[in-house]
Specification:
- The chain is mainly alpha-helical.
- It is built from one helix and no strands.
- The longest helix has 29 residues.
- The chain starts with a helix and ends in a 20-residue tail after the last helix.
């Protein structure tokens, strides 16, 4: 009975850690970057003046 309890407790703790890790990874991937959305190259699209 003691080994069964140890096995169930170990499996439960492993499952909780796996779920916590999955939520942490999803939270990290969903984070927005702290950099501004400024283009590195801009093209002049205005009509040339005559």
């Amino acid at each position: 009975m003691r080994r069964l309890f140890a096995a169930v407790a170990t499996a439960g703790i492993a499952a909780v850690l796996a779920v916590g890790t999955a939520f942490g990874i999803v939270a990290l991937l969903d984070a927005t970057p702290d950099q501004p959305n400024v283009p590195l190259i801009s093209y002049d699209t205005a009509q040339p003046s005559r």
